[in-house]
Amino acid sequence: MSKIKVMTDSSVQLTKEEIEKYDITVVPLTITIDGKSYVDGIDITRSDFVKKMNEAENLPKTSQPPIGRFVETIKKLTADGSQVIGIFLAKALSGTIDAARQAAEIAEQSDNVTIIDSELTDRAEGFQVLAAAKDAQAGKSMDEIVAHVEKIRDNQKLEMMVVNLQNLIKGGRLGALSGRIATMLNIRIALQMPKGELKVAKKGRGKKFSRAFDKRVLEDIAENKDHIKEVGISYVDTPEPMHELADKIKEINPEINVLVAETSPIIATHAGNGAYAILYYLE
């Protein structure tokens, strides 16, 4: 039986320990800030990115990994006869998954590379990647791994709060809504991504709206506390309130593992300062 290796992109939320323990290959995206390019996670950290974003004249641009980098990675992973499962951020957010598919064809390894759209990003993508990596280490087949990943994907939730709409509007991510929302004062929006599509779930004004958002999400977690083992809380620049939010989740069920961490540049770029997301799935 050939070995199965796991590949993902740098928008994923994983700890260094998880990446090393489960032998996960992370292919970095590229970030351009005022004309200067950086390789995500290689020559710019997440906290450094936020500082540079706030100092930049223009909205940073994030782009999928170059095809050549993907080709090289796929050739390296399959050189010993291994199969590869690649799990990537939602196609609605990036062309990364298409680049991976194209690279597999160029590398003449399409039959040995299985590619999955996580339909999300960040820790939700991480849940799927970790499940695949653990299953691979346990010797499960590709079909078993794919079924497990799809089960997680079909039961996962992203609840995101954007408190400053400037970056979302500049990046065109709000589509037809942007013009109307842009004219409102102190508007915040709650985003969700059902089936991989970014949707505005609710909008409201000020901190009161954010508190109601937190309350609603915590109530959902409480209602499903026996079916949730993992929660990810990812943020742009607000670590203290996010750790307080994590404490509230632990109060609901101390057995829930909560990872609080800075989000990736691709999310920070569009969500802007003060944004945060709560990600989990039901078992």
TrEMBL record:
SUPFAM superfamilies, per this entry?
A: DAK1/DegV-like
Q: Which Gene3D superfamilies match?
A: 3.30.1180.10, 3.40.50.10170
The yes or no answer to whether the keyword Zinc is present is no
What start-end ranges are recorded for coiled-coil regions in this protein?
A: none
Among NCBIfam families, the record links this protein to: DegV (TIGR00762)
Keywords in UniProt for this one? Lipid-binding
Record protein name field:
DegV family protein
Q: Which organism is it from?
A: Lactobacillus kitasatonis
The record's InterPro entries line, in alphabetical order, gives: DegV (IPR003797), DegV_C (IPR043168), DegV_domain_contain (IPR050270)
